[in-house]
Structure formats: structure tokens, C-alpha cells
Amino acid sequence: MTETETIAYDVVVLGAGPVGENAADRAHAAGLSTAIVESELVGGECSYWACMPSKALLRPVIAQADARRLPGLAPANQGPLDAGAVLARRDDFASHWKDDGQVQWLDGAGIALYRGHGRLAGPRAVTVTAEDGTVTTLTARQAVVVATGTRAQLPGLRGLDDVRPWTSREATSARTAPGRLIVVGGGVVAAEMATAWQALGSRVTLLVRGKGLLSRMEPFAGELVGEALAEAGVDVRTGTSVESVTRENGTVVAVTGDGERIEADEILFATGRAPQTDDIGLDTVGLEPGSWLEVDDTLLVPGTDWLYGVGDVNHRALLTHQGKYQARIAGSVIAARASGTPLDEAPWGANVATADHHAVPQVVFTDPEVAAVGLSLAEAEQAGHRVRAVDVDFASVAGASLYGDGYKGRARMVVDLDEEILRGVTFVGPGVEELVQSATVAVAGQVPLDRLWHVVPPFPTLSEVWLRLLEAYRDN
């Protein structure tokens, strides 16, 4: 290992995924010299193994499901998807796992890229170890931003490494569809990947430890998605745990808590995420390696005046768009503090807004889609709000009928009865992903219900569900 030089920047960012890129871009745009460190591909998990390839896999599935609900589209109604064409398009969306374009963007933006493993080396210092063993030390005059994201968390089953299980990475980058696939988990990754690979020709068995899918969302969301998966041919088993896994002559054998043996060609564990902080030098600044980074609403790690944690590593919301929002806030905060500009840390501050995490939007790209923002009914009640849930079936919405026969969907708004605002909104149904932004505006902006009456939805669209929800609130 050869140390070469020490180079000073105003800001050093660990992790060049979308979150790290946004933090670096915002800091550099404010006139701060900025470096970013990445050990894998510039563009991160989202670009190559998560958001982009997974949605590229799912879009044809949803398009075909929409087509099957409509008359006059016979070719789209027949037969399975062309798996080869879908996977080839997926490869395009993942840039064939090459980061040339992302690197070009960094170069054009004037952000210095250091390839290698980055570790904190005490306050305001980062060492970067390149593949050839060369070590470069970067010092930060203003801030170090940790944006290293998360990795798949596998269960502690004996011999699991020998099985070579899929994680979300293998599930989004596989070259062919396995004949039989076991999916373990009940969250977003499990539901989406079961949806995709079933449609691409795999015989999927979905093993869910809990009572149902998408347990962190409104109960009807998981119920409707689970019903649709079963109708599509997925063997959905709730209340089922995996006690052991082996690979015998190339075949995966999973044994459930009931002693049943389930065989497959591959097994995907979608059982949670862990922070990528175990080997980034947290111990050199008095923090616990492998831990989530606690931050305040300016994304600063308490007890420091230079260390920031943005995106998944702070565990506020494991979503790319929310991490990018946090990164924009952090970049602006760092720039303001560097220039001595006072911060307006009140919500919706005119100078530098603090990071809000009460109106987080999310879409699950299954068939039907799930789109939600803010608190579920259970979360709102647990938080101490006096609330009421208002439910509407999409059958009452004229725009839903245009999606074809058999449209199944439901909407819920969680109303704060004391403040007459919305604490949360959930939509389930085909096409609802485009409704979530209007719900996010209503929840994040704390729009009074009496003002929402004057937001007129166009006819005939799915957005008429807003009028139906308001009418249900008024009439009951």
C-alpha cells in the first residue's frame, strides 16, 4: 500500500449514487470545491441494480396487464412476454452496467472523482484506497457527506453462502428467467420481483413470514396486490418462515417452519436492508461501525459540525427520491454554513429549508400499483393524532372505467380532525402512480380540506377520486 498525496477540498462526498451526486452537485454549484468517492459504478445502486432496471422489468408487465383489460388489443392479450426483449431493454436502462455517462457528467460539472474504497480517517479526513493499493488522503475544509447507501440484509441461515442466493442485485440483473423461483419476503422488493419474474416465465413461490404483503402500508394495499399475484399464478404463502436452505445438485431446497420442502432453481431473499457503514471508518470519529447514522433535520450528525449523512444511511426513508431531496438540503446547508449565512431552520424556511420526513411519497410498481404518501391510519393514531380514515372504491370513479373491465382499486385519505388537513393518502389500482404527486402536495403543503374542494379534477380521469374522497368525508 503506497500513500501518494493529500489533497484538500471544501466538501468530500462518500458514495457516488444519485444521493451523493446531488449533494456534490449542490455544494459545487454554490462555489465549493467538491470531490466524490466511489468504489463501484458511478450512479450507484439505483442506476444499475434497483430503481432503473427493476422498473424496466416491470413496465412491460404492467402495460400488458392494462392491455388485457381492454377489448381490441388481441395481440397484447396473447401469450407470455418476450423475455429476451424485456431483458435487453432492461440492459439499456442499466447502461449495460457501464458508468461512462455518469463519469462524463461529473467531469462536466467540475466535480473530482476518486475511484476506490473511501474511509473516514478522523475528523474532516477521508482516505481512498485504489485497486492498485495506492492511498490518497482527502481533507474537507467544510464537510464530509456520507451517502454510501445500503446493501441487502440476508438472514443468518447456516450454509446460506453455499446456496448462492439472489438478492435484489441478482433479481434485477439476471440474464435469463429461472424456471422456478422462490421469493422470500413481503415488502416492496419481494412484491415487485415476484410480479416481474412470474410474467417473464418463472414459476414463483412467494414466502411471507407475516400475515400479508406490504405490512408498512395500509392493509388493503397488500391484500389487493396479494390477490392479483395469486391470480397471475404466483403461489403466495403467508405466515411461512424459511428454516433452512440448501442447494442439491443445482436445485435449491428451502425447508419451511412446517417442515415442507420447496424446490426451485433460484431463491431470492428480499428480507431488508443494512447500512453500508461497516467499513467506512466511523470508529475513527467515535461512531459505531455498521450503524445507521443519526442526523438532525439539516442532515448533520449530532456532536459534529462537519459530518453529514444523507439518503439510506440515516434510515429516515430508504427511497432514492427522498435521499436526493435530503442531499439537496444538505448541499444548501453546507454552502450556507460555509459562507456564514444564517439558517432558517423552520419548516419551509425561505433561506435553507430543513429536511421534512413526514410526507414521504412511495410507489410500488406491481399490478395493481400502490402509491402512498404520509402516514397510514395506524401510524397516525400511533403518533397521537385524532384522525379519521375515508375510503373510496375506484369503481365510483368514471376515469377508472376507461382502464377496462375488472378494474380493482381503492383510495384512502387519513384526515386530521383537529387541523382539517391530510396526514396521509394511499391509492391502489392501475395507473395510480401518477396520482401520488397531487397527494404529496396536499400532505406536505398541509392544504386545508375546505381548500381542496376548489381543486377541480378533470373528467374523466382517475384524479376524480379526490372529489369522491371529499364527498365521502362530508357525507359520513
From TrEMBL:
Disulfide bonds join C46-C51. Its cofactor is FAD. Residues 360-466 form the Pyridine nucleotide-disulphide oxidoreductase dimerisation domain. Residues 9-321 form the FAD/NAD(P)-binding domain. FAD binds at K55, G118, D312. Binds 1 FAD per subunit. SUPFAM superfamilies: FAD/NAD(P)-binding domain, FAD/NAD-linked reductases, dimerisation (C-terminal) domain. NAD(+) binds at G185, G186, G187, V188, V189, A190, A191, E192, G272. One of its GO terms (molecular function) is flavin adenine dinucleotide binding. PANTHER family: DIHYDROLIPOYL DEHYDROGENASE, MITOCHONDRIAL, DISULFIDE OXIDOREDUCTASE. This is NAD(P)/FAD-dependent oxidoreductase. It comes from Streptomyces seoulensis. The lineage of its organism: Bacteria, Bacillati, Actinomycetota, Actinomycetes, Kitasatosporales.
